[in-house]
Design goal:
The complex is a heterotrimer of chains A (about 260), B (about 400) and C (about 170). With about 260 residues, chain A is of the alpha+beta class. Chain A has a domain at about 35-85 and about 125-135 and about 185-250: Alpha-Beta Plaits (2-Layer Sandwich). Chain A has helices spanning about 1-30, 35-40, 65-70, 135-140, 165-170, 190-195, 200-205, 220-230, and strands at about 50-55, 85-90, 95-100, 120-125, 145, 155, 175, 185, 210-215, 230-235, 245-250. By secondary structure, chain B is mainly α. Chain B is built from 16 helices and two strands. The mean pLDDT of chain B is about 90. Chain C is elongated and about 105 Å long. The chains are: A alpha+beta (about 260), B mainly alpha (about 400), C mainly alpha (about 170). Chains in contact: A-B, A-C, B-C.
């Protein structure tokens, strides 16, 4: 009897071991980062899990989003502090790339290159990617920046020590040190508006509806419709930041 | 505040190409150059001291005490550039009470305290306790009180107790070597772990920081030893200096090889960032990287020290060399820190442009502040040398 | 254990205890409840003041403009795109008579060439929209330098809104 039970338990152990090992193998085969697969499947979350989509084909570079962001969030008006900005890419016939963002695009854009010299040109609105594996929250030494369960990266300005490590760690240049507060500041996806059921200001204001925002966990949401029907890409995918800002028609020149 | 903005507008007019708007401001300035510089001096000086104690290189005896006290004085100041550059310096304590385990910077508080209290303090304490008891009995007034306080009013200087002190001190030094490696390798990791920044993000960064730390610490102790001996009107121990120079040479070779490896690797793999970094190195960093760090700070000392291994000129000439070389090396390592910290922020993470470094003389991030944090360790060292003179100690131990 | 080792350990013990006590005292009460951060910070982040409202709140009062706008190309544009953040206006403007609105509640009334040019100035980066998005409203591209240049015809209208009704262009 005793022998039997040990044998049984040993067999169970091997069985469990095999299952466990194959489970690990399968899990590790599935884990590699893939922008869209990842977007459709929030890690274990049941509630809202916000994602952002930007349609570059629709962006007309009016800069209203950058402007609205500054006003809605009281971002300092000097041209060194932006939570949201727009870049104008112009690729010339000779292959050179010109990127411009005068005052972050707040005042709109002018095309400085004559049409005859332009190979192609487009606008890219930039903002916090609200990364799921965000390098900025990873490096914060005191826990003054964090990700909420809805997938929004926030800063605790009453706890931030202003060491600027997060500014260095953000690959997208989306953070700055608030000149008056001395603490890190960044896009909150207008967290104060979300809580009232409103859209973030930049999404609210976009005249061409180039900016889409919604719950990635909800199969019927606008963002899921956008992701399913467009070939989307994130910026700097090789850094594996788990970016949740998806661009339609993103050119490889964009960094 | 106004000055700060004015500075930024001036920088804005000097932007080359395109940088993200938030990147116009250089976030880590001269104070963060000093931070790895000063911690490096600590680690290097300590390694030199442990060469004598652990590896029994007795000819280095005259520098043992100086090296320890130097390490301690610089260690006391090491965090100050960090704290004074914070946007909210009064919140600095948070890093100790809620350290974030995934942050490379958070553990610094503990590594620092471990190294300061458990390694440097204990080693000095056990090394000097017998002397402090004796000196406490001999002196009067404040000095007497200081000795009594520092020795915690202990009196036991029996041979048994002193032997125990020596034994514990030895163990502490043994623990201290990996700790010194940890301390400075770890400072390198703070930069090396930032994957967003290709100029920093390399696994070699901690190792490079470690060896450049040793180089700078050894050079610093060399200068302090020469200056102190001159002030005390004593004779320089040329054997000791020759030996230090020999170790400086060895470690400089390793340091040079590692940095060379890093650069060769970058050039060979030529990743996405390569063109941007190439232009950075030959543009904005040309003087600081090739001339100050490379030529004057590394190649010249390497060649000179290398020559000295085969051909020894007269002591008079060697003395001059031993004063000039460490200064060159110290300058070279300073610019190595500069090239890492400032250089890593001059290019945009979009790889489309460059910003400019500009800081004022005054202000929290200015040159005067930086100079202050470089001078204070020397004041502390002078005080410690007055209180715990290593040369008097040697005399008493021979009585 | 020798006396001096005991004293040394004592000093270290005092420091460690002091540190642990300080840590307990200084650690914010909501820290660590939801993760390695102050849980209260989530709530604090919702307290920021709003400036932009939603389109509906404008048309509650400005009904005629709404009917006008619904017929034109600008029907999908929110009022705040041109007029700027209007939450304060939408909350308090109703208390004042027409013409007595204080400056602090007035909104932008853009109408100069540069204001319309923000979207409509011809730009190679903008033009593609004419080809790519057949189903969405096209954004008309105008070369402001050529389209009725104000300098050449001094008596001619200088601003876009002199000819075009921005609510029904």
């Amino acid at each position: 009897m005793n022998e039997d039970s040990t044998q049984l338990s040993r067999r169970n152990f091997f069985k469990a071991g095999t299952v466990l090992a194959s489970g690990v193998a399968i899990a590790s085969a599935l884990t590699p980062y893939d922008g869209l697969l990842f977007a459709a499947e929030a890690p274990g979350a049941k509630g809202k899990w916000y994602g952002i989509g930007i349609d570059i084909t629709k962006c007309i570079g009016c800069g209203k989003c950058a402007n609205a962001c500054k006003q809605e969030n009281n971002v300092p008006s000097d041209p060194f502090y932006f939570r949201s900005w727009v870049e104008q890419y112009t690729i010339k016939n000779d292959g050179s790339i010109l990127v411009e963002s005068p005052n972050g695009g707040v005042d709109g854009f002018k095309q400085s290159v004559p049409d005859a010299e332009i190979y192609k040109s487009f606008f890219v609105p930039k903002m916090c990617n609200h990364c799921a594996k965000s390098p900025c929250t990873q490096v914060c030494p005191v826990g003054a920046t964090f990700e909420t369960e809805e997938g929004i990266v926030l800063v605790d300005e009453n706890y931030c020590i202003g060491c600027r490590y997060c500014v260095q760690a953000c690959p997208y240049g989306c953070r700055y040190i608030h000149p008056e507060k001395g603490t890190a500041d960044k896009c909150t996806l207008c967290f104060h508006r979300l809580k009232h059921g409103l859209q973030p200001a930049c999404f609210e204001i976009c005249p061409t509806e180039a900016r889409i925002f919604g719950d990635l966990n909800d199969p019927g949401s606008k963002i899921n419709y956008f992701l399913k029907n467009h070939t989307c890409m994130v910026v700097k995918p090789h850094l594996n930041t788990g970016s949740k800002l998806f661009y339609n028609a993103l050119s490889p020149e964009v960094r | 505040m106004e000055d700060h903005l004015q500075n930024l507008y001036e920088v804005l007019s000097k932007i080359e190409g395109y940088v993200y708007p938030n990147e116009i401001e250089l976030n880590w300035s001269i104070l963060i150059v000093l931070y790895p510089y000063i911690t490096g001096l600590v680690a290097g000086a300590f390694i030199l001291a442990s060469l004598e104690r652990i590896f029994k290189i007795k000819v280095l005896k005259p520098t043992y005490g100086i090296a320890l006290l130097t390490a301690f004085s610089f260690m006391l100041v090491a965090t100050m550039p960090l704290v004074s550059h914070l946007g909210k310096p009064l919140r600095a304590y948070e890093i100790m009470i809620t350290p974030h385990s995934s942050s490379a910077m958070a553990i610094f508080g503990f590594v620092y305290l471990w190294y300061l209290m458990v390694v440097l303090f204990l080693e000095i304490w056990f090394d000097y306790r017998r002397d402090m008891v004796i000196w406490g009995n001999e002196s009067k007034g404040v000095k007497r009180f200081l000795y009594k306080l520092l020795s915690l009013w202990t009196t036991d200087i029996s041979p048994k107790a002193v032997a125990l002190d020596d034994r514990i001190g030895y163990i502490v030094t043994v623990i201290g070597i990996p700790s010194a490696f940890l301390l400075h390798g770890y400072v390198g990791f703070i930069f090396g772990s930032i994957k967003a920044n290709p100029w920093w993000s390399t696994v070699l960064m901690p190792v490079i920081f470690l060896f450049s730390a040793m180089v700078s610490g050894i050079a610093l102790v060399m200068i302090i030893y020469i200056v102190l001996t001159k002030i005390r009107k004593q004779l320089l121990d040329m054997d000791c200096l020759d030996t230090i120079a020999k170790y400086l040479f060895y470690i400089l070779i390793i340091d040079f090889a590692l940095e060379g490896l890093d650069q060769i690797h970058r050039i060979y793999v030529a990743e996405e960032s390569f063109e941007a970094l190439h232009a950075l190195v030959f543009g904005k960093l040309f003087y600081t990287l090739f001339i100050y760090q490379g030529l004057l700070g590394t190649i010249v000392p390497l060649l000179t020290l290398g020559t000295l291994q085969f051909y020894k000129p007269k002591p008079q000439i060697r003395k001059v060399i031993y004063i000039i070389l460490p200064i060159l090396v110290l300058m070279g390592i300073f610019f190595m820190r500069w090239n890492v910290v400032i250089g890593g922020q001059l290019f945009s993470k979009s790889f489309y442009g460059y910003t400019t470094f500009k800081t004022g003389l005054i202000g929290m991030e200015g040159y005067l502040m930086a100079a202050t944090w470089l001078i204070i360790p020397f004041l502390i060292l002078s005080f410690l040398l007055w209180l715990l003179p290593p040369w008097r100690k040697i005399e008493t131990s021979h009585e | 254990m020798p006396q001096h080792i005991k004293r040394l350990l004592g000093v270290f013990a005092i420091f460690i205890v002091l540190f642990l006590v300080m840590r307990q005292v200084l650690k914010p009460s909501s820290f660590g409840k939801l993760g390695h951060f102050r849980a209260d910070a989530i709530y604090e982040n919702t307290l920021k003041p709003m400036h932009y409202t939603v389109a509906d709140s404008c048309t509650k009062c400005h009904r005629t403009i709404r009917t006008e706008k619904d017929k034109g190309f600008h029907k999908n544009l929110k009022c705040e795109v041109c007029h700027g953040p209007g939450l304060k206006h939408s909350l308090f403007a109703g208390q004042f008579k027409v013409g007595e609105l204080p400056d602090s509640l007035k909104l932008n009334k853009p109408g100069e060439r540069k204001d319309c040019g923000v979207c409509h100035q011809k730009n190679a980066a903008r033009i593609k929209i004419l080809f790519d998005t057949i189903n969405t409203t096209m954004v008309r591209q105008i070369d402001l330098a050529e389209h009725n240049p104000p300098d050449l015809k001094a008596n001619e209208p200088a601003n876009c809104i002199d000819c075009h009704n921005p609510h029904q262009p």
